[in-house]
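Trying the structure run again after the queue cleared.
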Amino acid sequence: MLNKIEILEHFNRIGKNTLMETLCIEFIDVGDDFLVATMPVNSTVHQPMGLLHGGASVALAESVGSAASMFLVNSKYSEVRGIEIAANHLRAKKEGIVTATAKIVHKGASLHLWEIKITDEEGRLISLCKLTNIVLPKKNSQS
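Done. Tokens:
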């Protein structure tokens, strides 16, 4: 069993050369029923009006919620896919850091439901997201 530091290092390592690296998403905390990551807000994640793009927020939310589901399954036998995400963007953000905290709402054998709250440095809610992941049996790599 991996400890907290090893889990976070693993998630940050597997994000290399992916959208998570492009968006500078960093996993910073993990527990039995939650995972936390941060993302800087600057021009690389802005929409044309100079504000945090809703799509970047959704990418952060799905990255954290999907990784959290990966943590809950045995990756030797199962894999995770996001099948639905919904987001309400409640506050604009121009610069700084946002923090996404994914908390499990439902942990079934084949479906995981996550609530992801994205907050600013003062703890104000920027976006509230809901992510549904499906847990699939891993296909035999030799077929």
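The helical segments are 4-14, 19-22, 54-72. Worth checking whether this holds up in the mutant runs.
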